Amino acid sequence: MGVVIPATDETWQRLQALSTLPRSASSAYWQDRRTEMAMQRTGDAITFDGLYSDVPEAPGWLSPGRLSWLRRLVGVGDARDWSEHPLTLAWRTRLHALPDPRLASVFSSYDLAKAEDTAADLPDGPILEIGGGACLVAAAMLRRDCQRYAVIDLPESMAAGFAVLRWLFPAINIALPGEPNTGARVTFHTPDSMPDETFAAAVNVTSFQELDPPIVAGYFVRLDDWLVPGGRFVCINRAVKTDPARNLHAVFEDYPWPEGWSVLRDDEPLISRWSGPMTTIRRRVIQKPTTACAAKS
Length: 297
Ligand SMILES: C[S@@+](CC[C@H](N)C(=O)[O-])C[C@H]1O[C@@H](n2cnc3c(N)ncnc32)[C@H](O)[C@@H]1O
Hints:
Elements: E1 3-6, H1 9-16, H2 28-33, E2 38-42, E3 45-49, H3 67-73, H4 86-95, H5 101-104, H6 109-119, E4 127-130, H7 136-143, E5 149-152, H8 155-168, E6 174-175, E7 186-189, E8 199-205, H9 213-226, E9 227-238, E10 240-243, E11 248-251, E12 262-267, E13 281-287, H10 292-296
Parallel strand pairs: 4-5, 4-8, 5-7, 6-7, 8-9
Antiparallel strand pairs: 1-3, 2-3, 9-13, 10-11, 12-13
Helix pairs in contact: 6-7
This protein binds S-adenosylmethionine.
């Protein structure tokens, strides 16, 4: 089972064209994972398998994952008890303010809070997202009246993101790769057909952590072209993610962070340690220099 998104016939038909796009080369991890992606028309909806888990938590279930087993292991007041950590408390507060009840019926509070927390670091202006998945950050930004949002993703993953945005924002002009995109407010791109314009900010959330280092390095090189002077890059990824079966070992600190850019923020986002007290997620927000001179210094 996967997530079920209400969808019109038009959305379903447009998604069919994605299967004709070339499958971009990607990381070993995603070459493997992409075979898990599948979509199926089910009545007035589409079921998407592989990208997100199927059952959102029951209402009122607000504790981070693994808390129940952790509580069994440690006593009250033990530092390993994550239930009273500031990040956990922040979760409880923030979850009450989730904005769109339609999304809460489909996605877990983890995914929704992750998106809202990410969007809070994005400025007004055109946004580029690398690895958008279900486009929950895009949804948050469109609700904030963002007029231009571009998403780069693999064709098989962007299907869910497209369906989510078509469902939530039926009146917005959204273009898939290969469709006419003049004037489109949201455009989807593959790693083989990257956007060729500038943005106020770029964002990557729990995605670089699953890409091979040369692919991540390629994105960092392009960031300089994509961002306007003073533009920012919001990067939220696991401190370390290792999956030997998929040849994955990604280290946040080892990304090729550009020299001469300001670091606006370097901490842990709301979702850090949700999967367990040792599963650290890092957030770094960097800003491109406002002048070419500053970039060289
Ligand atoms: C774990 S999902 C995260 C999705 C979303 N950012 C979120 O937080 O819910 C990782 C995303 O990275 C995308 N991805 C994989 N390889 C990519 C590549 N070479 N370029 C851009 N995105 C890629 C996947 O298709 C997927 O949508």
